[in-house]
Specification:
Structural class: alpha+beta
Strand content: 35-45%
CATH class of the largest domain: Alpha Beta
Order of helices and strands: EEHHEEEHEHEEHEHEEHEEEHEHEE
Number of helices: 9
Distance between the termini: 58 Å
Radius of gyration: 21 Å
Low-confidence stretches: none
CATH superfamily of the largest domain: Gcn5-related N-acetyltransferase (GNAT)
CATH architecture of the largest domain: 3-Layer(aba) Sandwich
Oligomer: single chain
Helix content: 10-25%
Number of domains: 2
Largest sheet: 8 strands, mixed
Length: 329
């Protein structure tokens, strides 16, 4: 479905039509895919599946700018209506420096926040020209020097998003993408959040989630999320085969917002651990709550990797907790 939002005068005097295009994009599906073809995989996997209506309850909205019948710019927001990811910000090279991006960014942020959105995340190069464009719209780095950025629609939105609430465990689906990204980007909590996807401190999970979806079958991925009654993602557990080893070795990543550490056992209990082989969980020291929950599931300390995690000049030990199935040597 496409909806015209209005018109804006560019620096050149040209009249830009602003429109919100919701996936499935139907008659615009080929045009939007062609416009974003430079993104490559796994990004286009989402574009294709969204246009086929195969992304569960995920909302995908392209804020597009038209000059005549031609698409000249795009800003995409995906999410569940509360948490969102802003991405695929692109203007055709021959239409840059006209103000297209500024007009589309304003339309996208207005549409998301006025539509009930609470917070957006994005990833870009720190201190790049794009970084300062986003900074100008209110996005801020999740920590100093980071290109992972977050915007609160209203000050205090994140505190309310991660505030105390009843929770349940459910299988991760496409609509949890933005919530997972927001969760992993939070400054509070354990540092080592996902060994499998390389998250060693606050960082978004935009590309990581696409990798997860792309290799679900090949690596036998199990992903469970802890969600509040309002649908906020406050915890995640991801179990998958480790492709770096020939035998049946699995990696377990588990991260829960500090406000919900008491639900770690529920999250782990939703996973089906393999009957054969080994499962390894990598944790930054001390990770006391995670250690207790893992030991309750039969994990034991296998190794301590001294000063393994180095961030901002600080060294932290990494703990390796493991459990074995039948195939134990």
């Amino acid at each position: 479905m496409i909806r015209t939002l209005g018109y804006a005068r560019l620096k050149t005097g040209e009249r830009l039509r602003l429109a919100a295009l919701s996936a499935p994009a139907r008659r615009y599906a080929a045009a939007i895919r062609d416009f974003l073809a430079h993104k490559g995989q796994p990004w286009l996997m989402h574009v294709d599946l969204a246009n086929e209506g195969k992304v569960d309850k995920l909302r995908t909205t392209y804020y597009v700018g038209f000059l005549g019948a031609e698409i000249v710019g795009n800003v995409m927001i995906v999410g569940d209506g509360r948490a969102g990811i802003l991405g695929h910000v692109y203007t055709r090279p021959d239409h840059r420096r006209k103000g297209v991006c500024q007009r589309l960014m304003l339309a996208a942020l207005t549409g998301f926040c006025k539509g009930g959105g609470q917070a957006l995340s994005l990833g870009t190069g720190y201190n790049s020209p794009a970084y300062w464009i986003y900074h100008g719209f209110g996005f801020r780095s999740v920590e100093e020097g980071s290109g992972s950025m977050v915007l609160e629609c209203v000050p205090g939105s994140l505190a309310r998003y991660f505030g105390p609430a009843g929770v349940r465990v459910t299988a991760a689906r496409w609509e949890h993408w933005a919530g997972l990204s927001l969760l992993f980007a939070q400054p509070e909590g354990n540092l080592l959040r996902s060994k499998a996807y390389g998250i060693f401190g606050p960082a978004i999970f935009e590309g990581g989630f696409l990798q997860l979806q792309a290799q679900r079958e090949r690596l036998g991925v199990q992903a469970q999320v802890l969600v509040t009654r309002a649908g906020h993602v406050v915890g995640a557990a991801i179990l998958q085969r480790d492709p770096g080893w020939p035998a049946e070795v699995h990696t377990l990543d588990i991260f829960v917002h500090p406000s919900f550490q008491g639900k770690l056992t529920d999250l782990l209990g939703a996973l089906e651990f393999p009957a054969r082989g080994k499962v390894q969980a990598y944790l930054d020291y001390p990770s006391s709550e995670r250690v207790a929950a893992l030991m309750g599931q039969g994990f034991r300390l296998e190794a301590t990797l001294p000063r393994q995690l180095v961030r901002k000049g600080q060294c932290t030990d990494v703990l390796v907790y493991s459990r074995w199935g039948e195939q134990r040597g």
